[in-house]
Amino acid sequence: MIPLARPDITEKEKQAVLAVLDSNQLSLGPKLNEFEDKMAAYAGTQYAIACNSGTSGLHMIIAALGIKDGDEVITTSFSFISSSNCMLFERAKPVFVDIDEKTYNLDTAQIEEKITARTKAILPVHVFGQPANMNDIRRIALKHGLAIIEDSCEAIGAEWNGKKAGTMSNAGVFAFYPNKQMTTGEGGVVVTNNENLAKLCYSLRNQGRGIDSQWLNHVRLGYNYRISDISCALGIAQLERIDEILAKRQRAADLYMEKLKDVEGVILPIVDERAKMSWFVFVIRFEPWIDRNLVMQTLLKRGIGCRPYFTAIHLQPFYREMFGYKEGDLPVTEHVASGTLAIPFFNNITEEQIDRVVAEVKRAIGYAAIPDSEARLKRRYELGVASDHAVVR
Ligand SMILES: *Cc1c(COP(=O)(O)O)cnc(C)c1O
C-alpha cells in the first residue's frame, strides 16, 4: 500500500513535543509565542496568530474584517470546503468565479463582472500550492475598494513574482493538518501586517477577551480557537526544516513530471512562469476519454492511495440547497473537477514508489479508457496516434 499522504516526523520533533509535556505549560505558554515569532519571521509579516486550524484562521479574518450578513465575497469553487464555509459562519455569501483551466486558480478576467454593491472582499485560494494571479487580484481590489484574504493553506513557501503567498493581502492563512507540507497535528496561523486585524484575531481566538487579556473580561463574541503548546512545539521543529521539506517535495514532483510526461491521456500540473510552487499534493488530470472514477477504483484496489481533488464546492448538497447552484453554473470548474486525481505524494516518497504509482496509473488507464469515444478519437487524430495500445481490456 502506498498512501496518498504521510507526515514526516523526526526524532527532534518527538523530543520537542515530549519537552512540552514535561514543562507544565500545555497552552498559552512559551511555545505559542515562539511559534508565532518564527512564523512571522518566515512569512516576513509583522504578526502571526496561531490557531487550532486553517478553517478557524479564515473565520477569524472574515470576522475581524467585519464581513457580515448579506455581504458578498468573491472566491473559487475549486477548493476545500472551508474556504467558503468561513463566510457562511458570518452569514455572508460566497460568490463563485470560474477557474483557469491551466492553473486551476481563479480566472481573474471574470472577477469584475461579479462585483456588486454588496461585495466586500476577494478570497483567492492558492490551489495545490500554486499562487493565484495576485497582480490582477490586487489591482481589482484596489480599484473597487475590496479587502483580500489569501487562503494559503496549501501554499506555505510558495511565491508570486518573488513575494510570499499569504503576504500580498490584508491577511493570509497557513494550515497544518497532517497532509499539509508541514504539520502541527491540527493547526493554522494567520499572517498579517495590519495591527488592528492582528489584535482582533488574538481576541477572537481566545473567547473574545480584551487585549489586556484579563481572564474573565469578554468584550466581543469570541471562540476557542487556541492551539496547544504541544502542537506549537511540533510546528517550530517542522518550520526549522521547511526548506528541506519543500525541496523534497519539489524532487518528488519533478520525478512524477518526468515519468508521466509521455503518458497518453494524462494532463500534468502547469505552473505559471511567475509562480514558485510549494507542492501540497500532486494532482493529475485525465482527458475526457478516460473514466477517472474507474482509474481511481482500480488504483485503490491495487493499493495506491488516491482521491479526487477537488469536488466543486457549489455542487455540494447544502450549497445547492442554500444558494440554488446547479450543474453548468461553473463550466471550467466542473470540467476540471471531473478529471482530477491526487496520487501518492509526501516528503519521503521513494523513486521506487513513484515508479510503482506510474506503472499502476498506466495500467489503470488501460482499463478505464472509453474506447472509440468521440473525445478520444478527436485526441488521437490531433496527436496522429493510430494504435489503440492503451486499451488492454
Ligand atoms: C487545508 C485547507 C484549509 C484548512 O483546513 P483545516 O483542516 O481547517 O486546517 C483551508 N483551505 C484549503 C484550501 C485547504 O486545503
UniProtKB/TrEMBL annotation:
<keyword id="KW-0663">Pyridoxal phosphate</keyword>
<dbReference type="GO" id="GO:0008483">
    <property type="term" value="F:transaminase activity"/>
</dbReference>
<dbReference type="GO" id="GO:0030170">
    <property type="term" value="F:pyridoxal phosphate binding"/>
</dbReference>
<comment type="similarity">
    <text>Belongs to the DegT/DnrJ/EryC1 family.</text>
</comment>
<dbReference type="InterPro" id="IPR015421">
    <property type="entry name" value="PyrdxlP-dep_Trfase_major"/>
</dbReference>
<feature type="active site" description="Proton acceptor">
    <location>
        <position position="180"/>
    </location>
</feature>
<dbReference type="InterPro" id="IPR015424">
    <property type="entry name" value="PyrdxlP-dep_Trfase"/>
</dbReference>
<dbReference type="InterPro" id="IPR015422">
    <property type="entry name" value="PyrdxlP-dep_Trfase_small"/>
</dbReference>
<feature type="modified residue" description="N6-(pyridoxal phosphate)lysine">
    <location>
        <position position="180"/>
    </location>
</feature>
<protein>
    <submittedName>
        <fullName>Putative PLP-dependent enzyme possibly involved in cell wall biogenesis</fullName>
    </submittedName>
</protein>
<dbReference type="GO" id="GO:0000271">
    <property type="term" value="P:polysaccharide biosynthetic process"/>
</dbReference>
<dbReference type="InterPro" id="IPR000653">
    <property type="entry name" value="DegT/StrS_aminotransferase"/>
</dbReference>
<dbReference type="Pfam" id="PF01041">
    <property type="entry name" value="DegT_DnrJ_EryC1"/>
</dbReference>
